[in-house]
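Subject: Endonuclease/exonuclease/phosphatase domain-containing protein structure
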Amino acid sequence: MFEAIFNELSYAKLYNDNSKVRSNGLVMNVHLNNEIRLKSFAWRQTCKKVKVKYMGSAFTSGKQLLRLTNFALAALILQRSGDVALLLNPGSISTQLPKKHLHLGQVNVNGLRNKTMEIKDLLNDTGIHLLALTETKLDNLILDGSVAIEGYQFLKRNRNGHGGGIGLYSKDCLVCKVRNDLCSPYIEDLWVEICRPKAPKMLLGIFYCPPSANKDYMTHVYDSWDRATDENYETYVLGFTDHDLTVLSIKSKIPKGPSKVVYKRSYKHFSAEKFINDLKLIPFWLVESSDDPNEALDTFLNLFRDIADIHAPIRKYTVKSKPAPWITQNIRDLMLMRDAAKREAKVSGFPSDWAVYRKLRNHVVKVNRESKRAYFLEAINNTKKDPKSMWKTINNLLGRSNCPIPTYAESNGEIYTKPKDIANHFAKFFNEKIKKYRFEMSNPIDTEYVTKSITEIMTGKNCRFEFSSLSLLEVHSCLAKLPDTKVTGVDGIDNFLLRIASNIIAEPIRYIFNCSYAKSIFPDQWKVAKLHPIPKDKKQPFEDINSRPISLLNVL
């Protein structure tokens, strides 16, 4: 009966070994105050006593085993009632790694797509710089954005068929390049070249040896390793472990990773009423005192920004990684319980402990999927009337909008890692490109031919094109309809301020537009834009020739 009870509870039986009781049973706290409350957790002790708390008393083993059986029967009845669930004590596990070291980790993830958030928590908790993954089970149909983790670059080599696959999360502070010339076509391996500032390059090899690996497979592994050692670089190899996490710490200087910083206006203490009242006191009539569009625009921007900086100053914000919104605290607790059950099962080796772990593991997967499904269903239902927001949610679900931003640039073998160096390099590249286009277009235009062609095309057509002055109503209507989704330009004025101040600033803005039309002059400040280079092919190195410029102009 004793054995049957604990098997039903998914815990190991108690037995006597050399006059010592080994217990992997239950420690219960039962209160009989008009109701029964049960708190249970996995507990193991190798000693002469099995401690069972009952109404504040402790019972020794031997003669008191019958009472422990009664407790187990009570627990079994409560468990079958469906109102009480077993709770494992997750305990605490130290994840501190030595400082001033380069940490290389490896784990068999057994499917990355549904465990990305767990890997993200692991990286944030441990601070591992390079985490190699085997059995990622990805294919070319799965977008990189669906497994992207902020602050890390993801490199991969997928298997052509089902299962397998290798991946590597590398911290943004490191420059990693895939060495396809060292990878073998006969095995699953991934070689990565790691560039460190003021330190020699190093090679990291990741191997996956499937259960079907034979002698020939291992021969290809050694051949791949030999090719890498011929590079005369510091070489490290990962992948020859089971599903447990292994970490290798190398004493090395670690470059400081780039932080994602944005500058935007702070509306924490903003009052629209006070802002409007102060704007009414500003002499915007000074804008119309000049017939030069550049001077008029400069006057308006200086007057408007002086008030805007007082009520909504520009602040520096560091963008931090956000957890997955569908992973609740309850799910995180279940994950801790699952990990605790696995540690308990590995120590004991009892089949009943492994059964508890498998039940918790499957339950975590089920709850996580249901929570994610409910979150995105609710998000899509809430945006049915807004197609733009709905597609943004769908793209986020599919991983189309989570592609990481490159943190370094490469050109002619030279690598740029500092933001200022990257900006100067791309500015020089795009300037030279524009100069080349201008030189190719320097041939004079045959105005007589163009005029004749336009005349022939427009013959017999009752239509014409001409500029006309803007009215105050048109300008006010455009300002009042500005959305909040526009990105702020270099002038630091966003749509929100322009919209709420539309009644006051419509007249000076109308004057600037009409003056620009009349003088045929486009203001110089509106020619300046934020330039963002984005990669053309994200699978290729981020070089100048593999980038296209995106200009972010001022709102006005």
